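>> Question from a student workshop board

For tomorrow's exercise we were told to take the sequence and the ligand below, predict the bound structure, and bring the output to class. My setup keeps failing. Could a helper post the expected result so I can at least see what it should look like? The ligand is zinc ion.
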Amino acid sequence: MRKCLYNGKLILGDQIVEGKAIVFSETIEAIIDEHEIGEGIDKIDVQGAYISPGFIDLHIHGYGGYDVMDGDVTKLQTISKAIAANGVTSFLATTMTMSMEDIQQALRSIREVQQEGSKGAEILGAHLEGPFINPAYKGAQDDQYIIPPNMELVDDFKDIIRLITIAPEVEGGTDFIKEVKEKTNIVLSMGHSNATFEEAVEAVKQGVSHTTHLFNAMTPLHHRNPGVVGAALTTDVTCELIADKVHVHPGLFSFLLKAKGLDKMVLVTDCMAAGGMPEGEYELGGQPVFVKDGQARLASGSLAGSVLNLNQGLRNMYTETGFNIGEMISLVSYNPAKILGIESKKGSLDIGKDADITVFDSDIKIQMTIGKGTILYEAE
Ligand SMILES: [Zn+2]
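>> Workshop helper replied:
Here is what the output should look like for this input. Compare the format with yours to find the bug.
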């Protein structure tokens, strides 16, 4: 049955429009004046809330006690269902640097869920975070499993891998970048990298177009040695930001939006299994993680992903910067869709696109999440 949402603030591009209803089935069918809503449509009154394009998370490892690396179809589906409560309608299931066997199993389970359906937020494919990274900036990745880049893994799973985080400076990095760009549409992202500014700029020329959690696990910005951060800020690449106010100081949020432009930044969670769970001891990539005061850390003190919800990240950006919701919504919708090349189907509330819709109040609390026209989550 066709549905419509009305009595809300519709986010269309960077404009916020009132007095209109959005009509949809699996896809968005029409945007009409509220008094034009006809019979035979399931009408949903959102009571003044924002009606936004569904959120897309390009970098998430787990949630609700489960991890993508569990390599289990049911657990992946549980993650998909749970994160819909945070407004997420689609995401890249993100792997870690572990044994090749574990990574292959995780990728097989992602493939299976894509065929079977996620029963929650849609899995758009996999983000391979490692094992082709630099041990000097391993972050919370287990260095015993770091290996030089090779095409074998990519060839076997090129139907589901959408994004790869690599350290471009490692041996074989240049050839790998060339081959991936020649053979596939996979997005290459620099991260967990010890590259110099010059090496990073060269990698961008070769085809790297994205940056994995800007500032975290990469050579920092120094005015005489600008590193990967300097290359990310001064070239055309898009940048992920973990806006939990722990990974990057919120004093930089406004600067980043201005420096990169609103069309080049994307919010991600990098959330691990402890997301949505009480604080305590968990695991990430086979290593114990201690969650306390909203921070996830290894025993060494290294940050180990986050416990951030995507709507909380958006709220942090919103409260720390002077931008309005309409301007900022692209950071969790259109921009990630564009990065993956799926902006003709997702990322904005345009007629013909998938009916992926997130409804939230003025405090960015999620009221309802709709994926391809099906209600995935509804607040009580
Ligand atoms: Zn990660």
